[in-house]
Specification:
Elements (H helix, E strand, L loop, with lengths): L1 E2 L6 H6 L26 E5 L9 E5 L5 E2 L2 E2 L4 E2 L13 E2 L6 H11 L6 H23 L12 E6 L4 E6 L6 H7 L7 H11 L24 E9 L6 E7 L4 E6 L10 E8 L9 H11 L7 E14 L4 H9 L8 E13 L16 H12 L7 E7 L5 E7 L18 E5 L2 E4 L15 E6 L15 H22 L4 H21 L4 H4 L4 E4 L2 E7 H7 L7 E5 L3 H5 L5 H5 L4 E4 L4 H8 L1 E2 L2 E5 L12 H22 L5 E4 L8 E5 L6 H10 L4 H7 L3 E5 L4 H12 L4 H17 L7 H16 L8 E2 L16 E2 L10
Parallel strand pairs: 8-14, 18-20, 23-24, 23-26, 27-29
Antiparallel strand pairs: 1-12, 2-3, 4-5, 6-7, 8-9, 9-13, 10-11, 10-13, 11-12, 14-15, 16-17, 17-20, 18-19, 21-22, 21-24, 25-26, 28-29, 30-31
Helix pairs in contact: 10-15, 16-19, 20-21
């Protein structure tokens, strides 16, 4: 038995392992543990725990220092340069490491999910098969046995045992020591280095292993692991055996004829008590399909099957006698039963179609692969199969689903299971937080397979690097091309369905991804004043623009009905200018982030300083002279409610409107933000912009107020009319009145003044009875003089 010392990995930690290929060899010394040796000279020949293929002979005049039963590391003195002889010599030490502690870190801290042990072991088996296939090109005798290259997994759920067998290259005794006895030494990495040295690195790019710790993942679920292996270059079969909590292992020659294998490696895992659930055949089959579905070699699992057959039914003796007497009975009674049996079942049937030429793959094959991989029942709206070469090489197939998931939570949660990352056809992860796709494209599904992704040692986490950023950029570009293809399709229903399900995602992209605004903007859709039933694109809007129109006009509201009835539209509709209706809560923020499209600025028609391209400076000057005093009078009455009172150029039928400041919230945004402040009025007041009260000088009400301003500016009815005008404009402009009850009282008061005595009938006011009865008393009314109805003669 080879026992590793506590410093068995020190050279690896210092040099990375490639120089130290051989693990612990037997130590030969003359009674080093004999305490009676005293001061006698002892000549010892010994091998380093990590052998460098040369022995070290040392002569000592005192025995080896022992500490806790272990050799203390030797101290070496470095030779100083001749020019620096005055400096004291530096002392060189070897790193010390607890093998058991290192194993504990690898097993319990490296992997976040126990079930990846099967992925790692299958990857090792696939590498062994790949090595054999590669070597057989120059050494055909390695395949003389003629056995198929495959992987077979058998389980014993009663005893908690998993057996994984491959018919690969196998290992010799020394390779067992090198690969399994030396932690963090990768046999695959060593093999690839040999290929590179021989300038044949490209001959076999399917090898998966990198770090040399995948085998130890078996101890995640196992108390004991037994490895039985036979190399085609050796006549002997060896057995490696190790335990989870031990820093040692054993190697012996297999002598039991029943356990001999022709070629390859057989791993037997004796599972821990809490992990025996992994020994169920269905569980193993599920793990293989999830992680190793696309390994290039067939993987068979031992499954229970059944077939139906007809068997005779045992009859009662009395019935049997009747049947004997009945000469007409032509056949005996039978029943159908299911006969159970165990057999090998191919588990990885689905082929990685992304490795095939896109010209050779049919649409039906793409759709079938999509349904199987992502458990969907509907065909995707579009797919994109491509290969990227250059700085980063990877293959990918992307899909646009035809329906959003229930609840549409993906727009909030950036972590989805929609992108499956493979490295050399082995599943790594589908749990990403925006590394491969931004949040707004999280609905895109697909697979990405690359050979040179920067993974951590557990192969579970994609590290941030320049390669990942380049890959992300190319994946996003392909996704946009795919969506653009849907929008340009002759079947408009496809894009309508896409927009209904994923339109909010693209609007979110306008807010989060400034770099792709040019790709996002053509995909947006909105209702407009000239297309209230069917959404249009920004390209269609620009094509319909008037020759003198410089900007893209929009209005934000809670519905198309509210948008088309707003007073802000009056003059624009007269001039036949199209206005976009932003009726989705996210629309306004998305458009504000875009700022412009094809050099046309987005302009909110509910903001001040609206320029419709028809300014008449002389007329504006006349209006200011005529209504300037009235504006000041109205501003004095409204006080701090408005920032200013101005003459409007956007009204034609309404007397007034309340517009937002250029840099303030619109009425729609204020409504949305007010709903999100949880009753905190201070934050709303802080963020709310200035309001400008605009009047229409052509309207009769404004003309009457202009006369009142000149003749009787202190008239109470005129001042109340200004208050009512403001409150009415507040509602018609989309704002929420601060006190609806007061507004209602003002309206009732004005109605009373307007209707008093109009039809010659006295104004009656009903007194609410204490209780409802059918008596005549409840119908008596109190007569009030008309002059008293408004409280003002």
């Amino acid at each position: 038995m080879h026992r590793l010392s506590r410093r068995s990995v020190s050279a690896i930690l210092r040099n990375g392992g490639p120089r130290y290929r051989n693990a612990a060899a037997p130590i030969s010394l003359s009674n080093p543990f004999n305490e009676s040796a005293g001061e006698s000279d002892t000549k010892i020949r010994w091998y380093s725990v990590l052998n460098t293929n040369r022995s070290i002979t040392t002569v000592s005049t005192r025995p080896f220092n022992m500490r806790n039963g272990l050799f203390v590391g030797n101290r070496y003195e470095s030779t100083a340069a001749a020019s620096d002889a005055s400096n004291p010599p530096a002392e060189k030490y070897e790193y010390q490491a607890e093998v058991s502690r290192l194993m504990d870190l690898i097993v319990n801290s490296l992997y976040s999910n126990k079930e990846v042990f099967l992925r790692e072991l299958i990857s090792n088996a696939s590498d062994a098969l790949d090595k054999l296939r590669f070597l057989s090109v120059t050494e055909p005798e390695l395949l003389k046995d003629g056995f198929d290259l495959d992987i077979r997994i058998q389980t014993d759920k009663d005893n908690g045992i998993i057996t994984l067998t491959d018919s690969g290259i196998g290992m010799s005794r020394q390779e067992l020591v090198d690969c399994l006895g030396t932690i963090a030494q990768s046999g695959t990495a060593k093999f690839l280095k040999a290929l590179k040295d021989s300038k044949d690195a490209g001959a076999d790019s399917n090898l998966i292993g990198q770090f040399g710790v995948g085998f130890y993942s078996s101890f995640l679920v196992s108390d004991r692991v037994v490895v039985s292996t036979k190399s085609p270059k050796s006549d002997k079969q060896y057995v490696w055996e190790g335990e989870a909590n031990s820093s040692s292992y054993t190697i012996r020659e297999e002598t039991d004829p029943e356990k001999l294998i022709p070629r390859g490696t057989r791993l037997t895992l004796y599972l821990k008590r809490d992990d025996k659930g992994f020994a169920h055949p269905e569980r193993v089959q599920k793990l293989v399909k999830n992680y190793s579905q696309f390994v290039s070699f067939p993987i068979y699992t031992w499954q229970e099957k059944g077939y139906t057959k007809e068997v005779e039914v045992d009859e009662d003796p009395s019935e049997a006698k009747k049947d004997e007497q009945d000469e007409k009975a032509e056949k005996k009674k039978t029943k159908t039963v299911v006969e159970k049996y165990w057999d090998w079942e191919l588990t990885n049937e689905t082929q990685p179609i992304w490795l095939r030429n896109p010209k050779e793959v049919t649409t039906e094959e793409y759709n079938e692969f999509y349904k199987k991989t992502f458990n969907e029942y509907l065909d995707p709206l579009a797919s994109s199969h491509f290969t990227t070469e250059g700085e980063v090489e990877f293959r990918s197939i992307l899909y646009v689903p035809s329906m959003a998931p229930a609840g549409k939570e993906d727009i909030i949660n950036p972590k989805t299971k929609n992108i499956r990352l493979y490295v050399k056809r082995v599943f790594i992860s589908d749990d990403f937080d925006g590394e491969l796709f931004p949040r707004y494209l999280s609905f895109v599904k697909g697979v990405v397979d690359s050979n040179d992704l920067p993974l951590n040692v557990s192969r579970e986490i994609l590290q941030e690097s320049r390669i990942v950023r380049i890959m992300r950029k190319r994946l996003v570009r392909k996704a946009f091309d795919m969506i653009l293809g849907i929008s340009m399709s002759e079947n408009k229903d496809d894009y309508e369905r896409f927009w209904e399900n994923f339109g909010k995602h693209l609007k979110l992209g306008c807010m989060e991804d400034r770099e792709n605004h040019k790709r996002l903007a053509p995909l947006l859709r909105f209702f407009s004043s000239q297309s209230e039933d069917e959404m249009i694109s920004l390209d269609e809007y620009v094509e319909n623009m008037k020759s003198e129109q410089k900007d893209i006009y929009y209005i934000a509201a809670d519905s198309v009905t509210s948008a088309k009835n707003t007073p802000f539209l009056e003059r624009l509709l007269e001039k036949d200018l199209e206005v976009l209706y932003l009726v989705d809560p996210i629309d306004e923020v998305a458009v504000q982030n875009l700022k412009a499209y094809k050099e046309k600025n987005f302009v909110d028609i509910s903001k001040e300083d609206l320029d419709l391209g028809d300014k008449n400076e002389e007329k504006e000057k006349e209006m200011k002279q005529e209504f300037g005093q009235t504006c000041d009078w109205i501003k004095k009455r409204l006080g701090d409610k408005v920032a200013s009172v101005q003459i409007s150029n956007r009204l034609s039928t309404s007397p007034c409107v309340l517009v937002s400041g250029r840099f303030g919230w619109s009425a729609n945004m204020e409504r949305l933000m007010k709903a999100q402040t949880d009753g905190d009025a201070s934050s709303l007041d802080y963020m709310r912009g200035r309001r400008v009260f605009e009047i229409n000088p052509e309207h009769p009400i404004i003309k009457n107020l202009n006369v009142a301003c000149t003749s009787s500016p202190d008239d109470e009815e005129a001042l109340r009319a200004i208050d009512l005008l403001y409150d009415t404009a507040l509602i018609s402009s989309g704002f929420t009145p601060e006190s609806p009850s007061q507004l209602g009282g003002k309206i009732y008061e004005m109605m009373g003044l307007a209707l008093s005595g109009k039809w010659g009938a006295p104004t009656v006011g009903f007194q609410q009875p204490a209780a409802q009865t059918h008596s005549q008393e409840t119908l008596e009314a109190e007569v009030i003089e008309p002059a008293e109805a408004g409280g003002q003669k």
